[in-house]
Amino acid sequence: MSESRRLFFALPLPTKLQKQVIQWRADSFEAEAGRPVAAANLHLTLAFLGDVSDAKARVLSGIASRITSPTFSLTLDDLGHWPRPGVVWLGTRRAPLALLQLASLLRSHAARNGCYQSTLPFHPHVSLLRGATRPVALPASTPEWQLDANEFSLYESQYHQGRTRYQCLQSWPLVASSPC
Ligand code: ATP
Ligand code: MG
């Protein structure tokens, strides 16, 4: 029997942006607000696949390699708190169409290949704090960082000795539009 791995497609955050976000987070939230997500783990999930066999992972990565989707930029200018499941997140007030289309494509391919997809609408976000089940005092605004998406990746989520770590298995470029 083949082993299964917990996989998801996501946009990575560049290292410089990771550093800016964690510095701002340290300055903006009380330590009791929640468990800070490690800098290297900051990401924006496009499609969650769940536990997937190696064979299915190969099919889905083959599909991902044939996607031609344009590059896009989004502004991280929204902030919110979901008491359940206990997440404080950074999001965007104006999700670019290319982001919504890429997520929708990946989610529909995932569903067609038997990966359950939540019926909740896609809400692009970067989780900042987990375990934030109590009321949280949110800062009034965010620094409005820009995230330039040039690629998307397939990650494996590994939980070991009380820590979640993501391993990037593969990345695919988004396609820069050519000048007219
Ligand atoms: P942990 O669960 O160990 O606290 P985590 O939530 O970051 O950490 P995973 O549960 O493996 O790790 O999730 C990986 C990514 O997929 C995260 O961005 C998470 O928010 C997202 N995710 C997890 N479960 C679902 C789901 N059922 N539907 C949509 N996205 C999900
Ligand atoms: Mg989780």
Automatic annotation (TrEMBL):
Keywords: Hydrolase, Ligase. SUPFAM superfamilies: LigT-like. Pfam families: 2_5_RNA_ligase2. The active site is at residues 43, 125. The keyword Ribonucleoprotein does not apply. It is an enzyme of class 3 (hydrolase). Signal peptide: none annotated. It catalyses: a 3'-end 2',3'-cyclophospho-ribonucleotide-RNA + H2O = a 3'-end 2'-phospho-ribonucleotide-RNA + H(+). A motif (HXTX 1) lies at residues 43-46. Its EC number is 3.1.4.58. Gene3D superfamilies: Cyclic phosphodiesterase (3.90.1140.10). Belongs to the 2H phosphoesterase superfamily. ThpR family. PANTHER family: RNA 2',3'-CYCLIC PHOSPHODIESTERASE. HAMAP family: RNA_CPDase. Hydrolyzes RNA 2',3'-cyclic phosphodiester to an RNA 2'-phosphomonoester. This is RNA 2',3'-cyclic phosphodiesterase. It comes from Rouxiella badensis. The lineage of its organism: Bacteria, Pseudomonadati, Pseudomonadota, Gammaproteobacteria, Enterobacterales.
